[in-house]
Structure formats: structure tokens, C-alpha cells
Specification:
There is one protein chain. By secondary structure, the chain is of the alpha/beta class. It has a domain of 172 residues: 3-Layer(aba) Sandwich (Carbamate kinase), CATH 3.40.1160. The protein has 12 helices and 18 strands. A hairpin with a 6-residue loop joins strand 14 and strand 15. Bound molecules: aspartic acid and magnesium ion (MG).
């Protein structure tokens, strides 16, 4: 078997943990498997490097930031290879350049285009454990790039696809994917299985266990993933295509506090208004979510939408600049103290009543809904941030997701 094993920063944060990971890899190796290990930077090293950069030059270029950040992963793979060697197992560390992991040129948010598997295969055929830097790539000019925060998961999935691996395990500091964030909902339960689509909704909703693009890629190439703990041997959560497994009505509840709500009021009711509004925002790279347009009242209409909290000031600036001139709106309001709570479940496609049940739970808890949005397998509500935790708990209870 060829296995790809990815370990996050906390799993390699110090000497003891590095050896703990090394031993797990040796076990696989001694069972006759070919082992590819993908690592993140140690602990919070990526943040440390970013702070160092900010201290020297708050406006440092993205190219130089990537040059700096790639050293984090390079440190962990070299140390891991040394640890494996000291345990008597031949290993070799490779960075994105040495493997040849080609990406787009978009520094800080590059996308993987092609992975050259030759060198890795050669090393595996020579019975070495191959330890590869996550998160980084090389663009067509030969410069380093990075894939965006949390991008090592995507490196691992891409390698699993390129190498036609038999297993791809994502090791983290939690036991798997849960029905809710256990820090918010203490009785949350670990899921044994979840579909790619549900995981995608949860990942983008801030469940935080997997990099969104890694799930997209896993779905595209049919890579079955296991999310499991590096600190114990419990089985983890399998992420795969929905098969005949029983479709859960609701698999989980996600809470996202990184949300700000905008309402642009008194817009003209004529073609092109929404286009202009979102065009201005897109031009400034402001990503929007949860768009809602009101029906006409008194000759005008309102449009509400959400952005991440970091983007709120930028979005307000853009809207204020264009508000009077091209948008001709009467008022722009922004609320930063909001949160989004969502229920996700593949079974809701064919079962009515999920939204009603969620709204009932919120009503019983006395929580007001500011805005609603849905997809085929998700219902999300925007509420006051101070009610985010009780709302998640109430909805989790309503669907009896506890242990
Ligand atoms: N080290 C990078 C980060 O902290 C990538 C990763 O951990 O996946 O975002
Ligand atoms: Mg991560």
C-alpha cells in the first residue's frame, strides 16, 4: 500500500511530538507500506514568521512573504527526516522545488497545477520514507508560492491523487469531524463518516478541521480521506463520496463568528443595481456571502450581504466611495457583532421540515434571526454574535445530535 500521511503544526510542535509522528510512520513502513509524509510548519511557526515580516516591513511583498513562509515547512521536514534516520529508517525530505510542485503565480493564494511524481516514486522504490513540505509550491518563474493558510491539507490530497495512493490520512489535534465544535457544544459527537459535499459546507462554514480546497480536490479526484488524531489511535472520520450509507438528515451544526453584515438601503429598483454593487466589491477582492435582496417598498429596495470581519472596513470604504455616485443608495449600515449558525445534512434534499425545526429551536431559545440563506444541504441563519453559542447548542439539541 502507498499511504500519504499529513501532520499539522501541533502534531510536530516539539521534539517529543516529532518522534511520536516518526514512530507512527515507521510502523507503517515496517508493515511493508510505501510512506509519504506531508508536514506543516512546527506549532505556530507560520504566525511567528509573519510577525517577523510585519516588524521589518508591514508592506512586505507577497513574493518575499512566501519566500519566508516556505522556511517553516522546510524546517519541519528536515527535522522529521533526521528523526526517522535516528530510528534506523531511511528517509529523505523534499521541498516543493525538489519534488516539482507546480502552482499558479498567485503568491499567498496559489493553486496547484501539476505535481511531478518521478522523484517521489524513485525514493519510494528505494524504500525510503519521503517527507514533503506542505503548503508550498513553485510558479513558472521558479519562485516559491504558498497555497493559503491551512494549505498543507491540500498538498496532501494532491499528492495522494498524483501518486494514486491507497490511503490519505490527515492527522490533527482532534479525534475527527464532530457534529459541532466541542468547545461550544460539549456533548458534540464524533462522526464516523461524512460526504465530500457535507464536509465542503462545514469547511467553508468555519468548522476548521480541513482546508476547503483540499475537500474540493478530494471530491474531484475521488481521494478518500481520513481525519484523525495524531495523539491517539482512535479511528477518526472518513470523508468520501456519498454512497448507500445512510444519509443523515442533519450531520452537524457549524458556527462562524467571523462575519459582518452589510445592508445597503434605498437602492433604485432597476436593472444593473446589484451588478454595480457587487462589481465594485469584487474589484477590491471583497468576497461576499449570504446575499439578500428585499422586495420593492416605496420605490426603492435594499440589498444585504455578509463578508468576513477582516474585510468589513475595506467593504465599507468601497461602498462609501461609490454609494452616492454610482450606487445612489440612501444608507449603508454595517453590523460587526453577528455570527452565522448553520445546519448541514445530505438528507435534507429529500426531507422537508429541517428549516422549520431549526427556526423553532431558535424561537424557543428566544433568538432573533436577522437573515437566512440556504443551499441544497444547508440552512444558515445570521444572528447576534452574543447568541451564537446558545443557538448552536439549541439547534444541536433539536436534532438530537448528541452522544
Ligand atoms: N503552516 C501553514 C499555516 O499555518 C500551512 C498549514 O499549516 O497547513 O497556515
Ligand atoms: Mg490545518
Amino acid at each position: 500500500m502507498l499511504v500519504v500521511k499529513k501532520f499539522g503544526g501541533t502534531s510536530v510542535a516539539n521534539k517529543e511530538r516529532i518522534f511520536n509522528v516518526a514512530k507512527r510512520c515507521v510502523e507503517d513502513y515496517k508493515n511493508g507500506n510505501q510512506v509519504v509524509v506531508v508536514l506543516s510548519a512546527m506549532g505556530k511557526q507560520t504566525d511567528v514568521l509573519l510577525d517577523m515580516a510585519r516588524d521589518i516591513n508591514p508592506k512586505a511583498s507577497k513574493r518575499e512573504l512566501d519566500m519566508l513562509l516556505t522556511t517553516g515547512e522546510q524546517t519541519s521536514v528536515a527535522l522529521m527526516s533526521m528523526a526517522l534516520d535516528s530510528l534506523g529508517v531511511p528517509a529523505v525530505s523534499l521541498n516543493a522545488f525538489q519534488v516539482a510542485m507546480h502552482t499558479t503565480s498567485d503568491n499567498g493564494n496559489a493553486r496547484l497545477k501539476k505535481i511531478d511524481a518521478k522523484r517521489i516514486k524513485f525514493e519510494l522504490d528505494n524504500r525510503r520514507i519521503v517527507v514533503i513540505t506542505g503548503f508550498q509550491g513553485v510558479n513558472r518563474y521558479g519562485d516559491y508560492t504558498t497555497l493559503g493558510r491551512g494549505g498543507s491539507d491540500t498538498t496532501a490530497v494532491a499528492l495522494a491523487a498524483a501518486l494514486h495512493a491507497d490511503a490519505c490520512e490527515i492527522f490533527t489535534d482532534v479525534d475527527g469531524v464532530f457534529t459541532a465544535d466541542p468547545r461550544i457544544v460539549p456533548c458534540a459527537r464524533k462522526l464516523n463518516v461524512i460526504s465530500y459535499d457535507e464536509m465542503l459546507e462545514l469547511a467553508s462554514l468555519g468548522a476548521g478541521v480541513l482546508h476547503n480546497r483540499s475537500v474540493e480536490m478530494a471530491k474531484k479526484y475521488g481521494v478518500q480521506l481520513v481525519v484523525r488524531s495524531s495523539l491517539n489511535t482512535s479511528e477518526g472520520t472518513v470523508v468520501k463520496e456519498e454512497s448507500n450509507m445512510e444519509k443523515m438528515l442533519v450531520s452537524g451544526v457549524a458556527t462562524d463568528k467571523n462575519v459582518a453584515q452589510f445592508s445597503v438601503e434605498g437602492l433604485e429598483n432597476k436593472p444593473g443595481v446589484a451588478f454595480k454593487l457587487f462589481h465594485h466589491l469584487a474589484n477590491h477582492n471583497v468576497n461576499v456571502d449570504m446575499i439578500l435582496q428585499s422586495v420593492e417598498h416605496g420605490g426603492t429596495q435594499d440589498i444585504s450581504f455578509t463578508v468576513t470581519k477582516e474585510m468589513a472596513d475595506e467593504a465599507l470604504d468601497v461602498l462609501e466611495r461609490h454609494g452616492k455616485t454610482s450606487l445612489k443608495c440612501e444608507k449603508i449600515a454595517v453590523a460587526k457583532d453577528v455570527a452565522k449558525v448553520s445546519v448541514v445534512g445530505a438528507g435534507m434534499v429529500s426531507n422537508p421540515g429541517v428549516a422549520a425545526k431549526m427556526f423553532e429551536a431558535l424561537y424557543d431559545a428566544g433568538i432573533n434571526i436577522r437573515q437566512i440563506s440556504t443551499s441544497e444541504i444547508r440552512v444558515s441563519v445570521l444572528i447576534d454574535e452574543k447568541y451564537a453559542d446558545p443557538a448552536a447548542q439549541a439547534v444541536h439539541d433539536a436534532f438530537s445530535l448528541e452522544d
